[in-house]
Amino acid sequence: MNYYILSLKRTSGDVFTWWRPDCRGYTQDLNKAGIYTEEELQERPWYFSNENAMPVEVGIVDRSLKATVVINDSSNQIVFAEQLEHQNLREAK
């Protein structure tokens, strides 16, 4: 299984902060987040899962992404935005 690492210390409100690849910093862009293997997490469980960090299965995060359609009546445009359903992440804890 593969995991993203959610930085609990740096996440604020609706803005999630993820660990970058190779434990080299943080990002709020999920596309730039690192993906960590179960083996990596088992090698250093105190590092990857503590009061400041929480592993979240990639599949849970990917399933919680959804497209939201916003219709702008004034110009009749459709804008697509991605957002996380926070309930799925809370259930992962």
List keywords for this structure.
alpha+beta, globular, two-stranded antiparallel sheet, three-stranded antiparallel beta sheet, single chain, 93 residues
- Helicity level: 25-40%
| Helix and strand composition category | alpha+beta
Low-confidence stretches: 74-87
Q: How many β strands by DSSP?
A: 7
Strand order of the largest sheet: 4-1-5
Architecture overview:
The chain has one domain. Helix 3 runs antiparallel to helix 4. The protein is α+β, with helices and mostly antiparallel strands. The radius of gyration is 15 Å and the shape is globular. It is built from four helices and seven strands, in the order ββββααβαββα.
Please give the structural blueprint.
Layout: E1 2-7, E2 18-19, E3 26-27, E4 36-37, H1 38-43, H2 45-48, E5 53-57, H3 58-64, E6 65-72, E7 77-84, H4 86-92
Helix pairs in contact: 3-4
